[in-house]
Design goal:
340 residues, alpha/beta, 434 Repressor (Amino-terminal Domain), Rossmann fold, six-stranded mixed beta sheet, disordered N terminus
Length: 340
Amino acid sequence: MELEGPPEQRSVVTLRDVAEESGVSVSTVSRILDDRGTPSRTATATKVRAAAERLGYRRNVFASNLRRGATGTIGVLVPRLTDAVMALMFEAIERAARRQGYFAVVATCGDDADAERRATETLLDRGVDGLILATARIDDSLPASLRERGIPHVLVLRTDGVSPSALGDDETGGYLAVRHLLDLGHRDIAVVTGPWFTSSGQDRLRGAQKALAEAGIDLPDGRVISTGYGVDAGSEAGYTLLRAEGRPTAIFAANDNLAIGIIGAARNLGILPGQDLSIVGYNDIPLASRLPTPLTSVATSFDQIATTALDQLLSPQPAGVPIKRALPSLIPRASTSRIS
């Protein structure tokens, strides 16, 4: 960092300057001021940090990383940041990266495979040390391409079954959601799941089917709608299900946006969520508990997934164990009730 003063008097504060100021060795200063580790609380450490602050020293992360052959930057790819789940996931990754002395940068690509590849190459061109992909498709070729090129990467919130992946246990989550509805006495249950090309949508539906099968209940094709993950998609699915003759008494929506759309459709049709219709969402985004009728939802631990993903990306992983799943939990609220 440059000190204030006339141009001819300005200089860069170095580790040696801090060492001389605090009366310790350069190696001691380097170790204490390396913020990638747990901060030391010793008297020497306190003295060194005080000297560094007095002199205006800033650690040169870029130079340090160059010496290690790295940039200290993690690239994160998401479909969009307007989606609350993607925003929450990136924030969790950024926190996890910061704890390990890395900086996370994000790129968006929508749901288009070509845009995904272009965004990936842009991140790689910026010299990122590795990639974390929160993109949703399971039919794209990008993970295989990254494996062939030896590029460190981890998938989050989904898996292709081969690349290292950190995600929630979506099948268990789907099971918990529908088991909750069954325990409340519901037998006519519909499922609004995500797109067919998402592992999360497929796994949550599989979990729902497992719970229904255990109860001896069939899930007819007319009670399953596969759609996008947005609020508008949920609203459209809600109208389709709730306008039909013999509407379901309960709906499991495979994310909270879908559930919010269904709640809106229900209210417009004069159907009261939590009374006339039970609804369960997924991910437990912050808005879920703040709705006029607080939403029962399956909570996903984004911070646990992010920490696991960083560990997978930055540490050698044992062969044959690339997929790690965080257990979800059901949060009951007023949008579900016992059937009359």
